[in-house]
Amino acid sequence: SLDGYTFEFGKLDDKEFTWDLTDGYKKATKKDFEGFGSEEFPFKGTISEYIQSGATFKLGKPLFQYLGSGAQLTNFHMTLVNATSGIADYLVADSSSPVTYTNILIGGTISNTNEGVNNGAAGALYGTVINEETTDAYVLNVDGTNAGVSIDATNGLQVNGCVAGGFVGQTQGNVIVQVSDASGLAKAVYSSKNGGIAGGIIGKLGAG
C-alpha cells in the first residue's frame, strides 16, 4: 500500500513540459501505463509533482488503478485522453480517512463504455468508491473547488460511461455522500450506452 511513503515526480526547472503516458510511454517502454496501486495493495502513500516544475501528465488511464483512503496528492496537472476515470478507477476505503488533494487540475475526456471494465463506471474523480468496512460508513465529501481539485477551464472535462458521474461513477457498500458545493465538478456528464446511467454528482449510489 506504500502507506507512509512519499514519491515526487517532475523536472528541476519550471519550463512547461508534457509527460506523455499514453502512446509516448508505450513506445518508450513497450508497455501500457496501468496506473498505480492494485486490488491487493491500493496506493495509500503521498505522491506529488515538484513545486512549479511545469509538467503536465497526459494520461490514457487514471493515475491510479486502486487508490486507498488516507492517500495524499499534491501539485498535479493532468490532461486525460479517454481515461476510464479522472483520478482512480477504484477508491477503496478501509478506514474513515479521506484522500487529501492540494492543487490538482484535471481536464480532457473520460470514457468507459465497456461493461467489462469496472462495470463501465466512470467519474470525474473515481469510477467506483468501495467501502470495505462492515460497520462504519465512509463519508465522501463533495465540496467543489474547496476539495483541492479543479477542472481545467481551457480544456474542460467530459465524462461518458455506462454509469457516469460528475464526481463518482458508482458506490459499493456503506458510503455517505455529503454535498456542500458542486461547482467544481464536471459539467458535461452523459452515457452513450443504450440504457446507461448518468448523474451530475453520482451515477449510481449502491446499497449500504
Question: What fraction, in percent, of the residue positions are helical?
Answer: under 10%
Nearest-integer average pLDDT: 86
The ordered H/E elements are EEHEEEEEEEEEEEEEEEEE
Which class do the helix and strand fractions yield? Answer: mainly beta
Principal-axes geometry comes out as globular
Share of residues in strands: over 45%
Beta strand count: 19
The N- and C-terminal alpha carbons lie at a distance of 26 Å
Low-confidence stretches: none
Please compute the radius of gyration using only Cα atoms: 16 Å
Question: Which features would summarize this protein structure in a list?
Answer:
single chain; 1 helix; 48% strand; globular; mainly beta
